[in-house]
């Protein structure tokens, strides 16, 4: 008889989401191996409470969780694949094409007037933004969304192919948006630190700038090694990817216009540091 989470014994349709699928599989494989939660925890090097949380969807599995579970239960990468499916399944269908674009791109040009680009967010900042945008979601769902967003940043650890070149323009208001003083301190510090990465450039569009094309909303232009450019356009409800040459060329032109009007990378870093100091004094 397949393992069931508490409260789902009478629901025959299977797991409701990827996180629950992972939990069910972990419990089923643990029981098939004749192990208690305490015994599996000992083999994996965790406390029994960690296993209990994984089996009841109260925590999102980390790469370390999956690797140790695969090793302890002698699985052929099953839990690693389930985690990846969980993360991919977290996103809305309309965002899935962009995930593929982000993973294949050699160059990403991003205009973000509302929040820090997801590839540069700290975990605390991502959690604050997501909680603010989704006030009715459960803590477990927010955890899953945060984990999914953070997993995208594994791209920076990639060796072959190399990580993309990322050029980001942020509206100055993004630096001043209250997501918590300590949270913003950490996030602004992360942005300052990107100056040391030759593959990442951050520029700030000052609040006193004249009206510009970026007022239409956020977007990303992606370039690839062996295929035409693509663009991703975002809005409050969903987003869309376009590969139509005329549209992509128009969005790319908008980006170049914004880059010419934004502060230089050096001046942008100075402004970020200034805002961080002001945040610290608040």
Structural overview:
The protein is α/β, with parallel strands linked by helices and 282 residues long. The protein has two domains: 18-89, lambda repressor-like DNA-binding domains (434 Repressor (Amino-terminal Domain), Orthogonal Bundle), CATH 1.10.260.40; 97-281, Endonuclease, Chain A. It contains twelve helices and six strands. The protein has a six-stranded mixed beta sheet, with helices on both faces. Helix 1 (18-32) runs antiparallel to helix 5 (78-90) and helix 5 packs across helix 8. The chain is globular, with a radius of gyration of 21 Å.
Which helices and strands, and how do they pair?
Blueprint: H1 18-32, H2 37-44, H3 48-55, H4 63-72, H5 78-90, H6 96-104, E1 107-112, H7 123-133, H8 139-151, E2 165-171, H9 172-176, H10 181-193, E3 200-205, E4 219-223, E5 230-234, E6 239-242, H11 245-261, H12 265-281
Parallel strand pairs: 1-2, 2-3
Antiparallel strand pairs: 1-4, 4-5, 5-6
Number of strands: 6
CATH level 3 topology of the largest domain: Endonuclease, Chain A
The backbone outline, from C-alpha atoms, is globular
Adjacency order of strands in the biggest sheet:
3-2-1-4-5-6
Top CATH class of the largest domain: Alpha Beta
What is the typical, i.e. mean, pLDDT? Answer: 89
> Order of helices and strands, N to C?
HHHHHHEHHEHHEEEEHH
Distance between the termini: 58 Å
Please, how many domains? 2
Radius of gyration: 21 Å
DSSP summary: helix tally: 12
Question: Structural class of the secondary structure composition?
Answer: alpha/beta
Helix content: 40-55%
Assess the beta-strand content as a share of residues. Answer: 5-15%
Can you tell me the CATH architecture of the largest domain? 2-Layer Sandwich
As residue ranges, the low-confidence spans are 1-12
Sheet with most strands: 6 strands, mixed
